[in-house]
Amino acid sequence: MKLTLVTGLTGLLLLGTIVELLRRRQLREKYGMLWLAVLIIVIPLSLFPRLLDNVAELLGVASGVSLVLFLGIVFLLLVCVHLSWEVSALEEETRTLAEDFALLRAQIDADRAARDELVSTDG
Amino acid sequence: MVNGKRTLIIIPALNESGSIADVVGEVRGELPGVDVLVVDDGSTDRTAAVAAAAGAKVAKLPYNLGVGGAMRLGYRYARDHDYDVAIQIDADGQHDPRYVPKLVDLLDDNDLVIGARFAGEGDYNVRGPRRWAMVMLSAVLSRVAHTKLTDTTSGFRAANRRVIEMFAGWYPAEYLGDTVETLVHTARRGYRIRQVPVAMRKRMAGTPSHSPAKAMVYLGRAFAVLTLALIRR
Questions:
Q1: Which end of chain B is flanked by fewer CB atoms within 10 Å, N or C?
Q2: Which domains does chain B have, with CATH numbers?
Q3: What is the pTM of this model?
Q4: Residue A18 and residue A24: Cα distance in Å, rounded?
Q5: Res. B120: pLDDT tops 80
Q6: Chain A CB within 8 Å of residue B221 CB
Q7: What are the UniProt keywords, alphabetically (chain A) (predicted)?
Q8: Which of the residues A90, A94, A95 would you substitute to probe the B interface, choosing the one with the greatest number of B C-beta atoms within 10 Å?
Q9: Cα–Cα distance for residue pair B220/B212, rounded to 1 Å
């Protein structure tokens, strides 16, 4: 009973955190929705850990809890890979921005030098 | 102008304020009428200012992107300003600009020309894992490119309009990507690659690394980069 209380409360706390982050617009919706979906699955399981025992038996896993642990690790790995992918895309975007910025700055310098030259030959 | 072609010399530079003025000055002295673009790859010293004072055009990146990032910027500049030829030269003074006309000549029949060490001219020696890496890279890349390539990591290369156009849109920023991966990519798309022997000089400033452990790591990374480049689309 104690364990159920601990796991259930943890789940609710995480749910509250994510809702609050979404409410303050600190979390992009695509990630917020993902974590909300996860919690909606996890909270019932934290209250009733035996819920998956039948499925576990079907797959040859000794207990539902082990199955949840396994699926959890797989899921987290996938999330990590996804985040690496997102970071790579972001790096490519910032790289392009940095290049655009340097090109613009070079253009401005060239324009300014040309103008200065024009002024000095006029005057 | 080199042989009637609008030519841009691209020099990627990171904290090279000690040598960049001499390199820019030498290029402009040897090759009158070419434009020099120094790409300052986020230097913390006065590289950009020194290069501009020496008469180069300067594009200063807001932070360090690596040689590949600096070079794509250079090729984008070459494309946007309508150059016929873009030539990459190292900022440490090891490439002799007197070879540039030779490279440009070969661009008549090739798309990418590489100035290569160990190809008969000059003296340059490496041993141990670093040498194995070079042997492996040149063996594999020579097969891929259907031409003899002995110095695949050379930063002395000349590109014509077709290659400038391609590099402006695609140029890897990763480690060794600027040399090994671009060669695989270029060769696979049917561009003609050719190397020409050049003598390299001692660097004007800075020191190359000689630690065996680093050489071993280099070998491993070169192998990984090459494998990845070969299995990529």
A1: C
A2: 7-231 (3.90.550.10)
A3: 0.84
A4: 10
A5: no
A6: no
A7: Membrane, Transmembrane, Transmembrane helix
A8: A95
A9: 13
Chain B CB contacts of A110 under 8 Å are 57
- Sheet containing strand B85-88, edge to edge, reads B57-60, B35-40, B7-13, B85-88, B157-159, B112-116, B193-197
C-alpha–C-alpha distance, residues A73 and A93, integer Å:
30
Burial class (CB in 10 A: 0-12, 13-18, 19+), B78: buried
Q: What is the pLDDT of residues A48-100, one digit of tens each?
A: 878 888 888 888 888 888 888 898 899 999 999 999 999 999 999 999 999 99
CA angle A17, A19, A22 (to 5 degrees): 105
Identify which of B3, B4, B85, B5 has the alpha carbon closest to the alpha carbon of residue B37: B85
- Rounded Cα distance between B5 and A26, Å, is 54
CB contact under 8 A, B61 and A102: yes
Query: Which chain B positions have a beta carbon within 8 Å of A95's beta carbon?
Result: 65, 69, 173
Least Cα separation, residue B16 to chain A (angstroms): 18
Between the CA of residue B136 and those of B84, B124, B142, B176, B226, what are the distances in Å? 33, 18, 10, 14, 9
A109 touches chain B (CB under 8 A): yes
Q: How far is CA B154 from the centre of its chain?
A: 6
Residues 6+ apart with CB under 8 A from A65: A49, A52
Q: Do B61 and A109 touch (CB under 8 A)?
A: no
